[in-house]
From TrEMBL, chains A, B:
Belongs to the aldehyde dehydrogenase family. Pfam families: Aldedh (PF00171). Keywords: Oxidoreductase. GO terms for molecular function: 2,5-dioxovalerate dehydrogenase (NADP+) activity. Residues 19-329 form the Aldehyde dehydrogenase domain. The keyword Oxidoreductase applies. Its EC number is 1.2.1.26. The keyword Oxidoreductase applies. This is 2,5-dioxovalerate dehydrogenase. It catalyses: 2,5-dioxopentanoate + NADP(+) + H2O = 2-oxoglutarate + NADPH + 2 H(+); 2,5-dioxopentanoate + NAD(+) + H2O = 2-oxoglutarate + NADH + 2 H(+).
Length: 526, 526
């Protein structure tokens, strides 16, 4: 397909808008054709109007139809073929294998949500049977289901142009819940966005759904603000910077009708190198750590930006191994000039901070937008004395915090902000210290992993990609995995409703075929 | 037990504080002994410190121990005997039968949550098995459970001195989730609060739990603000006015680490009298409506403050019937002089509003703090033209909105704010209009009931006492029923953790005895 740069809302195609921009290949600095139009307030208004009009018809789709729609999106994305991969590579600077893998993940999560919609647990059906003879008061027939919140605004992320973008996890889970979606695409990959947006629109048309079920817009910050302020939008999903997420949350809270914002914002993903693990394999840990640190030019939300360990020769060995490995790291281009600039500023701030020492560097990059890898070391007391050392530096930079003893390691942990992940490298001999840390780690993070690396997030049922503030704006949720659907739902109770007014899923004939709770007891179909 | 008016925090009893106040019997205006001390910032600080210290031990209690604790609270409340009933009647002006019923409900919901804790659905356990041979990447062993958020602040409501107060639904669901609770008791019933608080403390001691598991404080608005601002508090539950709820939500959002606030605030609970129902039983509906309107002096969150119907002789018959019934209503005392004053102000505002007509009044009250019942009528066009007509008047006042036709009824419905409940009175002949209304009603409310009255909220599994803003600050939740536990939980994922570090409920030996999801398939014990 040829990219147009047009704004498409419903069945209208708006060409030749004044404000327009072009994508940049971050690996070369070259400008990529065509020009893309920015949506203004009128387009936001129209997209939200169509989404609101589409809501009742879309949320009324039977589970099988909605699942088929999600699968159709997956098919349409695959049907874009290699052109999608090429454009995504060009716009992101990410290598082909990564983009192909990410496409697989994106398609996989759409299919996972299709299965989720069919299985029906998300409806959370509950029935309390009438007790007409109960004394002193009869009990009514009470039935509960979860319904979608309404149209959802999704803000695409820069760092996963497919999996966290136009048809990424937020969109898939909101559509699965029955919510129309208006995406504000990330300007770092407008062509990728247009292609995926067309794929979703093709699936909407193929499935006979209202055109307002899905709209993709590009725009400035004001466009995003108008979207979150629109009274027809009932929730927002966002992956990006802390500043951006907090701004959206503030806008949402200031609305006449506040709405939930699920912003995934900031995490330094502490990695604990326990004494037994360091003693057993400091060298291997150092190498593997650098592999995780530099993956995707360090541009993962789960990038290991902090390492905690007890000071000593084993930690020195780890640092030496990491130093050697990092010295071999030839940096890839970062996603955008802006992200590269922010990385360099963050790295320079650390280099200028008297409380830290730079112990290792990667190679100087060849070409533009290369973020040179960096490893810093500090003492726990210094880390505790300077809150700025706990701020995320988005890119291939990490900070090793040397703790004098276990008490200090626990004390540092208690002072950490909320995190997406924490990682423990440990041996059986480390169990006592690990057990001491566990309650603190649980209170601080959404995922705790052992003897692995935080980069790489499985899309499955048990995954949590979330965590206490500021990792996310709402630690009660996840943005990856099947539980993500719950963010866009709310419960409604139906009391003594005649069968013809009950939702189909709550009628006596439907309940045996769906998981539900009957007078407090769980019932499964079949 | 003799009331002391002391502040009790952990094992410390603080007597003789300067700032103190006494309760008032709203039925007589008499002051009731003793004087109660207000907690200041130091006491809030200390209570939160103890709650934070108690958190890990309390959340680690086995399900059976936590359930036994909830049951012990119920026993200790019942052991207070008639003294509790008498004090609650004196402080609230509510009749004995109501308070006895409310005690039964309070005890019942503690026992319901004990059963919920034992059944284990709230843990939402999920396991994705490791796939070491998967290509291109192996899958880790992933296990998920829900854990409690941390210490919770609960604000007691005035209108249910037992069921929505010190050991009411918010406290029961937070304790069930594993969260220590700091209650700010409502100053309308400090003696009732002290007695119930002592009962909870006795249960804490009996069950060998840390004293910081539960603290009751009384105080001014600043005390509540200090509580919500305290960094150790991780969520808040509130039932009360829209102003109060919004103030708490704003404080919570402005914290360095924002926290969820579950505020149940404002609802006028529209009642739809459908043409068929009006034709069949206008007279009976009028009588029953007044029964619901005046129950508990109109001081229910679910009080029917709005009636919608098509104009015509059947609606006139309903109004005539309601007028006659209301004329017989001899008002009971309202809960506090302040609530009575606000009711009178709201009623006077309606009487002075040229868009409405007062069509009925109750009897003049004998004694202080009596809110005279009132029924007003307006036209749909007037209702739409004056937003103030949709504001809650807390007490036995309601407004009938006459719609010219079904379109106008739908249009009014679309303009309503979020509600706790909506009620349909209907006959089979009304099905078409009801079906047209249903999607709008679902979008506007947490509970839809047919041919009943919204006052009276069952405490069960399928109940929703919640609804879109401003009925609550978070329409994704309920404050009544077993689903309320979910408000105080968040998911954590454990990846490849050695068995000795996994939470007990997620170990291989425990899973078969608990409901869980295994690779996406639901599994039930037994």
């Amino acid at each position: 397909m040829a990219l147009t740069g047009d704004i498409v809302i419903g069945t209208e195609r708006l060409s030749g808008r004044a404000a327009s921009f072009k994508a940049v290949d971050p690996a070369t600095g070259d400008t990529l054709e065509p020009a893309f139009a920015f949506a203004g307030e009128a387009e936001v208004e129209r997209a939200c109007e169509l989404a609101a009009e589409a809501f009742d018809a879309y949320r009324d789709t039977a589970p099988e139809s909605r699942a088929a729609f999600l699968e159709a999106i997956a098919e349409e994305i695959l049907a874009l073929g290699d052109a999608l991969v090429e454009r995504a590579c060009a716009e992101s600077g990410l290598p082909r294998a990564r983009i192909e893998g990410e496409r697989g993940r994106t398609v996989g999560q759409l299919r996972l949500f299709a299965a989720v919609v069919r299985a029906g647990h998300w409806l959370d059906l509950r029935v309390d049977t009438a007790l007409p003879d109960r004394k002193p008061l009869a009990r009514s027939d009470l039935r509960q289901r979860h319904i979608p919140l309404g149209p959802v605004a999704v803000f695409g992320a820069s760092n996963f142009p497919l999996a966290f973008s136009v048809a990424g996890g937020d969109t898939a889970s909101a559509l699965a819940a029955g919510c129309p979606v208006v995406v504000k695409g990330h300007p770092a990959h407008p062509g990728t966005g247009e292609m995926v947006g067309e794929a979703v629109r093709a699936a909407v048309a193929r499935c006979g759904l209202p055109a307002g079920t899905f709209t993709l817009l590009l725009g400035a910050n004001e466009t995003g603000a108008a979207l979150v302020r629109d009274p027809r939008i009932k929730a927002a999903g966002f992956t990006g910077s802390r500043g951006g997420g907090l701004a959206l949350a503030a806008l949402a809270a200031a609305r006449p009708e506040p709405i939930p914002v699920y912003a995934e914002m900031s995490s330094i993903n502490p990695v604990y190198l326990m004494p037994g693990a360091l003693a057993a394999r400091a060298d291997a840990l150092g190498k593997a750590f650098v592999g995780s640190l530099t993956m995707g030019a360090g541009q993962f939300c789960t990038n290991p930006g902090l390492v905690l360990a007890l000071a000593g020769p084993e930690l020195d060995a780890f640092v030496a191994s990491a130093t050697a490995a990092l010295a071999d790291y030839a940096p890839a281009a970062m996603l955008t000039p802006g992200i590269h600039g922010a990385y360099e500023a963050g790295r320079k701030a650390l280099e200028g901070n008297g409380r830290v020492r730079r112990v290792a560097e990667g190679k100087v990059g060849e070409g533009v937008n290369r973020g040179r890898g960096a490893l810093f070391v500090t003492e726990a007391a210094d880390f505790l004395a300077d809150a700025s050392l706990a701020h995320e530096v988005f890119g291939a930079s990490s900070l090793v915090v040397r703790c004098r003893d276990a008490d200090e390691m626990v004390a540092v942990t208690r002072r950490l902000e909320g995190q997406l992940t924490v990682t423990l490298h440990l041996e059986p001999s480390d169990a006592a210290l690990a057990r001491r840390l566990m309650p603190v780690l649980e209170a601080k993070s959404g995922r705790i992993l052992a003897n692995g690396w935080p980069t790489g997030v499985e899309v499955s049922h048990a995954m949590v990609h979330g965590g206490p503030f500021p990792a996310t704006s709402d630690g009660r949720s996840t943005s990856v995995g099947s539980l993500a659907i719950r963010r866009f739902l709310r419960p409604v109770c139906y009391q003594d409703l005649p069968a013809e007014l009950l939702p189909a899923v709550l009628r006596d004939d439907a309940l045996p075929g769906l998981p539900h709770m009957l007078d407090g007891a769980a019932k499964l179909p079949g």
